[in-house]
């Protein structure tokens, strides 16, 4: 039958090496990018949750004058909140520097109950 199978062994090793290189060059960088984006989305979700909580406090505080702004730190991330009253609507915005050193801003709107 197959008396000389040394070439067959070299070809299978070449295939295995090709698969290994494919994983290193394509799959691992993609997984790293996905992980970094998950961290970025988690940070943005956390900031938006804080903005929602602060906006709820502002909506129900009858003694507050507009416009109002203040800063706070959360998990070593400085954030600046601003709240302005427009026609029957309160606009709450938060500005922060993301972990990628990018300035970000998000705004929510809520009905004013005054």
TrEMBL record:
List where the protein spans the membrane: 14-34
The organism sits in which domain of life?
Bacteria
Alphabetized UniProt keyword annotations: Membrane, Transmembrane, Transmembrane helix
Source organism: Pontibacillus yanchengensis Y32
Q: What is this protein called?
A: Competence protein ComG
């Amino acid at each position: 039958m197959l008396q000389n199978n040394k070439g067959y062994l070299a070809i299978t090793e070449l295939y295995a090496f090709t698969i290994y290189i494919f994983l290193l060059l394509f799959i691992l960088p993609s997984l790293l990018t996905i992980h970094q984006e998950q961290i970025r989305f988690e940070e943005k979700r956390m900031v938006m949750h804080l903005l929602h909580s602060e906006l709820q406090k502002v909506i129900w505080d009858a003694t507050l004058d507009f416009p109002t702004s203040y800063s706070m730190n959360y998990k070593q991330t400085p954030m600046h909140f601003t709240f302005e009253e427009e026609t029957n609507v309160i606009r709450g915005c938060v500005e922060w520097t993301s972990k990628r050193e990018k300035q970000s801003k998000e705004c929510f709107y809520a009905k004013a109950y005054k």
